Amino acid sequence: MIPTMNTEEHLAHKRHSLAHLLAAAVLELWPDTKNTIGPAINTGFYYDFEFAAPIAEEDLPKIEKKMREIVKGWKKFDHEEVSNVDAAKRFAGNPYKVELIADIKKAGEKITLYTSGAFTDLCRGGHVDNPAKDIEPSSWKLDRLAGAYWRGDEKNKMLTRIYGLAFDTKKELDEYETKIEEAKKRDHKKLGKELDLFTFSDLVGAGLPLWTPYGTTLRNTLDEFVWELRRKRGYERVEIPHITKKDLYETSGHWEKFKEELFRITTREGHEFAMKPMNCPHHTQIYARKQWSYRELPQRYANTTACYRDEQTGELSGLSRVRAFSQDDAHVFCRMSQAKEEFLKIWDIVHEFYPTFGFSLRVRLSLHDPAHKEKYLGGKENWEKAENMLREIVKEKQVLSFEGVGEAAFYGPKLDFMAKDALDREWQVATIQLDMNMPERFDLYCINEKSEKERIVMIHAAIMGSIERFLSILIEHTAGAFPFWLAPVQVKVIPVRETHHEYAKKVADELRAAGIRADFDGSDEGMGKKVRAAKVQKIPYWLVVGDKEVAARAAALESRDKGPVGAVAVPDLIAKFKKETSERT
Ligand SMILES: [Zn+2]
Ligand SMILES: [Zn+2]
């Protein structure tokens, strides 16, 4: 027989067949359970149930054992087509299935049932031929329980979801589980607490992170790095208030488009204001303050500042999804003919910034969908020009890239950068967007060579994007072991005994005076414990000082990443640390 199924499809069929098996096992163990739906997902499968009495994680081994028993008798899936009346009769005790049958009928589709062993389910198909033979027993397992609303709607009943993991082989299953374990250890919410970087307060509210001294150092150091890269390329800093009159967002279109997420304020005089959900509209008004000659363009405004969005409480998550976040935002106001050069400059910043942390990048060229012209603003000619320009950039730079048709913003095409982290997860990070819409709405122009008004374009250019979200990625990528130049505490000075305190303190002071973030451990703990504490805090270097070091005006240097270095004179330490900071190694 010629294999017609690709491996990906085969895996999906295997996963979905396991969902059938899961439902069969649950119904044998608890016959009064109502089973609902059970699809394949990209790590395995799940099935949602309404149990008569709640079950617990402890029940999973029992269910899994039953599945392994049942599968031995499943040699095939039998398929039958039935009328909706028949189907409704057969699932009469299960209101979820009855609802699904009614929907299938309404959609005018065929109703099909699949049976293996003693279990029949309403299903569209997509199974392995012979579950007993085709499902390798060591390649799957049940994973965990979760709550899930029927049809994902919180107005509906909460069901119990049982998740299973399933891969092609046991090896892939093991690898996946190792990765999950590692991801749990690296969870930024957990590390944020352990490393004392940020906190949340019930009084302040959910989704509103508060930054500790260490966390603030981290943010500012990152922001300084971005600013350094921008300053070299002609950016200037601007500053704006965090609220605005409604009028600004009516003109920009955000009042309508951001309706749900906008924090609104009514003043005592009854005027309507809003907290800013982004900075672009404010920045247009800095550009619009005067008339510009083409000779003065581009104008490049950089502004690291907080934005506010009224996210739903259920969707908030650590630093990944918050209600207040800071953007390292920038906007370039320029002529269309200058846009390519400006894009290249931002491109270079992105490619200088991300590899510093060991992220590898690929680029998505996000284009408009020609089949849905109505979704986009601006004429065909402008779009062609803009997209060709972006395509040229990607080609010239010879990087890993792919095209995303339909991924453009309604106001213009963009370059989206995807960063791969230490766990091989890909995150969308920086984006450079060409905007032909905002200048139109705010009537932004320059006076060109012919003394005519010429419409300009705007480029949105955040490097980290949201600093909170970037930090959630960076914390997990580095597991909290930040590079030396970025670490909130770069060096810890550890005295061997009480008698060495004074000298240790002096060393720490000297390092601090040289601009190095050094701490002195003056606690009563023994030296071994102090070193362990420095390791737990993931401090890049610690210096141990005892009699020998005091006599030699030196300190015994040890590195988090490379182990003991040996005794180094204090001035040499300062030179070494300064060099590593400025080189960002
Ligand atoms: Zn099925
Ligand atoms: Zn913007």
According to DSSP, the number of beta strands is 28
Contiguous low-pLDDT stretches (5 residues minimum) are: none
* Arrangement of strands in the largest sheet: 11-15-16-23-20-19-17-18
Radius of gyration: 30 Å
Overall mean confidence score, pLDDT? 93
- Termini distance? 57 Å
Give me the number of helical elements. 19
Largest sheet: 8 strands, mixed
Helix content: 25-40%
Question: What's the topology here?
Answer:
Blueprint: H1 7-29, E1 34-35, E2 40-41, E3 44-50, H2 60-71, E4 78-82, H3 84-90, H4 95-106, E5 111-116, E6 119-122, H5 131-134, E7 140-149, E8 158-166, H6 170-186, H7 188-194, E9 198-199, E10 210-211, H8 213-231, E11 236-237, E12 243-245, H9 246-252, H10 254-257, E13 264-266, E14 272-275, H11 280-287, E15 299-308, E16 324-334, H12 339-353, E17 360-367, H13 380-397, E18 401-405, E19 414-420, E20 426-435, H14 438-441, E21 445-447, E22 453-455, E23 457-462, H15 467-478, E24 491-495, H16 501-513, E25 518-520, H17 527-536, E26 541-545, H18 547-552, E27 554-559, E28 563-569, H19 570-583
Parallel strand pairs: 11-15, 17-18, 24-25, 24-26
Antiparallel strand pairs: 1-3, 2-3, 3-8, 4-5, 5-6, 7-8, 9-10, 12-14, 13-14, 15-16, 16-23, 17-19, 19-20, 20-23, 21-22, 26-27, 27-28
The structure holds zinc ion (2 copies).
What does this structure look like?
This protein is globular. It is of the alpha+beta class and 585 residues long. The strands form seven sheets. It has an eight-stranded mixed beta sheet, with helices on both faces. Strands 1, 2, 3, 7 and 8 form a five-stranded antiparallel beta sheet that branches. Strands 25-24-26-27-28 form a five-stranded mixed beta sheet, with helices on both faces. Residues 16, 20, 114, 121, 123, 127 line the site of one zinc ion.
